[in-house]
Automatic annotation (TrEMBL):
NCBIfam families named in the record: ZapE
Organism: Sphingopyxis granuli
Protein name from the UniProt record: AFG1-like ATPase
Molecular functions per Gene Ontology: androstan-3-alpha,17-beta-diol dehydrogenase (NAD+) activity; ATP binding; ATP hydrolysis activity
Superkingdom of the organism of origin: Bacteria
Amino acid sequence: MTDLLAAYDGLVADGELKPDPEQRAAAGRLARLQQELEAAPPRGSLLWRIAGRRPEAPRGVYLWGAVGRGKSMLMDLFYDRLAIRRKRRVHFHAFMLEVHARMREVRKSESGDPIPQVAAALVEDVRCLAFDEMVVNNSADAMILSRLFTALIGHGVTVVATSNRPPSDLYKNGLNREHFLPFVALIEAKLDVMSLNGPTDYRRHRLGDGKRWFVPADAAATEALSAAFFRLTDYPPEDRAHVPSLDLDVGGGRLLHVPKALKGVAVFSFKRLCAEARGASDYLAVARHFHTVIIVGIPRMGPENRNEAARFVTLVDALYEYKVKLLASAAAEPDQLYVAGDGAFEFERTASRLAEMQSDDYLALGHGQDDAADDLAPTR
């Protein structure tokens, strides 16, 4: 317990964090959970056989709060120090994509409810399942979550989750929400719900008060964006040669290579995103998975590269829909990117969105589509 709390208190003492009673209470609760999980008897041990059944799993934790209040930081402290083998951390959206894929496979060979089989397979080697950014914005997820998580917890899994919303606000105003309410009740019954809404927005602080749209797209702009990446991810700049990459599943068996991806922050070139044959599903996958996107080398656009411009419009719509924070280097300011020829009038709306995405009000929004939207609206 002292290890996690000592690490947290060390961050406060070093000035990396500001004193925050809610944050420290959550750190203490996660420290206790770490201790409980590490003290639990291993699967198949003598204590299991004496009891004649699986020991009850430790109670989980649900951390919710506004953007930048330290949820991911606390999850990092907890997960990195949790000394058990059977643990898994996954973005909630990626987990639900996996669940639906597994359900489709079960239905190919079995009849009846696939959820018990899927749950049993998912927890085969997991005692602690940690979710980043729990958000529910489509009816397909909403209809299965209660039964799925009842099965997961019934299999002895401890759930730890972060979210921008309290459980009672998940899938708010969604279609047939009454079928989703048992999931809310399950979360409140099986997890300790803790708020993190302190006065300091660390992500906003790390974004800084300076520019986030750099013109022109030169070496100085690239260096400024690189510095922003290291601030947002706490990754040591001296290790820049080893920044992790990611192959993002964008659906249909296709992958999108993300050359730099860490802690919800992704770096792309404009060519990677918009010069290749990409569509709305690709950009929605990016928007769901990353809370901040850095794009390097946005050119001026016109009729001669209308395909790239059309993809860029779809990309911006997806990022805007999910309140993704955007930093970029470009050949011009947003309202000067596409000013003449076929498509210039339609691009005005995109330029307006790009300008809004630089505002303080937009930066204060939490990542994720509004739960009031039932299924993913197509980008326009």
